[in-house]
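Interim report, section 4.2 (structural modelling).
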Amino acid sequence: MNAYTARVLEELKTRNAHESEFLQAATEILESLSPVFDKRPELEAAGLLERFVEPERVILFRVPWVDDQGKTRVNRGYRVQFNSAIGPYKGGLRLHPSVNLSILKFLGFEQVLKNSLTGLPIGGGKGGSDFDPKGKSDREVMAFCQSFMTELYRHIGQDTDVPAGDIGTGAREIGYLYGQYKRLTGLYEGVLTGKGLTYGGSLARTQATGYGLCYFVKNMVEANGKTVQGKTVLVSGSGNVAIYAVEKITQMGAKVVAMSDSNGYIYDPNGIHLDVVKQIKEVERGRIKEYAARVPGSEYHEGCKGIWSLKCDIALPCATQNELDAEGAKALVANGCFAVGEGANMPSTLEATELFLQNGVLFAPGKAANAGGVAVSALEMSQNSQRLSWTFQEVDDKLKDIMKGIFDKCAEAAATYGDKPTNYVVGANVAGFLKVADAMMAQGVV
Ligand code: NDP
Ligand code: 2IT
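Predicted structure of the assembly:
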């Protein structure tokens, strides 16, 4: 590794010793960027990397709310405003009991590069809380969201920071957050994305991450002389990203045989009936286990990691970070899996990623492959600014073009900077970085 990159990584490890997820993301990113610093010594002279790895601002706040029993609860709220060199901070809000600063810093860091790859004018940020919406009543979720926004509103705005959904934050939560923002500020503006269609949301935003993932994977496999049609696919998770990945890859002629949640996975050799999954997850907010009771010929297995032991051609991890480890990667490789597309953020561990690259598995890293969601969020911002709504077809066509553009950028940067032209990990990191670095250089030491 380039001496400058190695030094900054060592300093980062010392200063953030307990932030394992952040260090994991940073290690991969800095290793990829090493050859850029060999070629561009002016970046070191400007202290570019030291600035790039440090969030511009981290906001941490108390979120008090009252539950249905009348008991006062306190959660911790966060917003990591990581980098605004190329546009207002943009990125989701995660509501999950595991949320901590390390996870939000890793997500914010990834988001900076992802948003750059879209080609749209959006900086990177991420936020959320350790609040768990699971099992809460709508009133409790509303009380939490109103309290969360009562602090967050002073830090965000359509031209400063535009949050959106992520794990645990869907249409319901965005609605409550938006209502409270409007009440506090009196502004009817595009301050959040993923809004409902009756109050400024964009058509195709719900589908965008999953669809975009499939568009990226199709570009990638076809560029390497293969096809998606007729292939057997595993999709982990059963949330927003997973559901619309299953929908699109099925439309492309593939067969999805398994999905999961944090408790276990279902296997349906006849191909997943997505209408059943949508009913269970989107309407009833239930568990994936219920699928097996409703669809003859399907099975449920406890434990979410077992999904990777199933035979497939293509794997799409769409649940959460580090859900696919070395053991899972070895099983996929041994079973002949030829492509992996990350719908989630950093679902593969560093070891798993390395195994895929070493074994010639086509690997689409999350920051490139799942960028369709934030890209359509940026299109939602454009529509809000114009006070217009585009058709589903218009948005979907733009999404297809954006995902093709992202793939082309990754392939080009991989060819220039990678150890091999199919190293899209290096490609995504370098291509995303160069635009942000050039903008930071132009704007001086800030
Ligand atoms: P959802 O909340 O809709 O769904 C999350 C899914 O992942 C659920 O099936 C959930 O299972 C599972 N999951 C969550 N945490 C864990 C865990 N610790 N272990 C195992 N499974 C888990 O979220 P999304 O679909 O929106 O997000 C999924 C991934 O995609 C995340 O990594 C997110 O950051 C990423 N992403 C999302 C985008 C979006 O637009 N929504 C855009 C780009 C990336 P359970 O119900 O059991 O918790
Ligand atoms: O990880 C992500 O890209 C998201 N959760 C979507 C962010 C957004 O602003 O739409």
